[in-house]
Amino acid sequence: MSDASEQHGTDSGADLVLRQPDDWHVHLRDDAMLAFAARYTARQFARAIIMPNLVPPVTTVAAGAAYRERIMAVLPEDSGFTPLMTAYLTDEIDPGEIETGFKSGVFTACKLYPAGATTNSASGVTDVRKIWPVLERMETIGMPLLVHGEVVSPDIDIFDREAVFLEQVLSLVLRDFPALKVVLEHITTEDSVQFVEAAGPTLGATITAHHLRIDRNAMFQGGLRPHAYCLPVAKRRRHREALRKIATSGHPRFFLGTDSAPHPKHEKESACGCAGIFSAPAALESYAQTFEEEGALDRLEGFASEFGPRFYGLPLNEGTVTLNRQPHAIPELMGTDAIHVVPFHAGETLAWRLAG
Ligand code: DOR
Ligand code: ZN
């Protein structure tokens, strides 16, 4: 390490310099929303794992490559950003297609959405056993599996869906595919924290900025708050405390994944509002605020910039980003003439601002 990089993660008075981070879970969308939203991820993160839940979903190598092109086309040529594409698993997906995508460098990983679990998951997997041959192939070729860890059975309480998934689905996957790398995405419960901690080196987890800051009360604060609604839904306070503790602990299998998921304002503020929180505009600042509150600013760099690439077996980024300690007012509303989006932390003032 150079002299400069030895200071990474330290608070040198006003600034915090970090090795450039990556976002290991983000929704960039398509069309006008993509053109609006992508810049916020690209200005903070060197790489991001791009979720494939478009309409139609990204299920072929050609669709993955075309989506990657569309992402790059809305960014400036010198953005330096690398989108890491994922394939959306369906009951019928062909293991050969997945392997071709991985070996040709189009796909970095596959995403498992249980059918009906969340936004645009209707084509997801109806029974995880149906994709056993795909998981077998992924294990063989070393391709990671990213999971939306919730069961969807209507008789399971929505607040229990993640915990039941661990027992009914994830345990089986880990048992039958001991060498498959799995990331349990956007964990929201103490159960998941303990499950991942107890598992071996093949299981990691991402933690969002918002699940570190809101519990389920946020959805009902003085009225119904659709902008605090996401999936998995935020849980009780004790679960949030467990997430904050593990995220700031320096445990190398828990890392940054924003799950930033923009929806137009009118689709959130509706009789059947969409799930998703648009955290990309100030994601790193939000994480920094949480780490500072926990007295763990020196551990932010590991969580944001080191543990993810190490888990995926990718090189660490060489560049740095700087967070200035500077009041940072988050707008109530963002967007263009055509799209209005309410960001996470709308109307609040954060303590950090990304320089540049
Ligand atoms: O809140 C969420 N929004 N959770 C998801 O799993 C999907 C995402 C979206 O695509 O809107
Ligand atoms: Zn997501």
CATH superfamily: Metal-dependent hydrolases
Percent of residues in β-strands: 15-25%
Indicate the percent of residues in helices.
25-40%
- As for the number of domains, it is 1
CATH class: Alpha Beta
What class would the helix/strand composition place it in? Answer: alpha/beta
Q: Judging by the overall fold, what is the CATH architecture?
A: Alpha-Beta Barrel
**What's the mean pLDDT score?**
96
Write up this protein.
The two termini are 24 Å apart. α3 (95-103) packs parallel to α4. The protein has a single domain (3-354), classed as Alpha-Beta Barrel (TIM Barrel). It has 356 residues and is an alpha/beta fold. It is globular, with a radius of gyration of 19 Å. It has helices at 31-44, 61-73, 95-103, 132-141, 161-176, 190-198, 237-247, 265-268, 283-293, 300-312; strands at residues 11-12, 15-19, 23-26, 47-50, 82-88, 107-112, 145-147, 182-184, 203-207, 254-256, 320-329, 334-335, 340-341, 349-354. The longest helix has 16 residues, at 161-176. It is built from 10 helices and 14 strands. The strands form 3 sheets. An 8-stranded parallel β-sheet has the order 3-4-5-6-7-8-9-10. The protein is 31% helix and 17% strand. It binds (4S)-2,6-dioxohexahydropyrimidine-4-carboxylic acid and zinc ion (ZN).
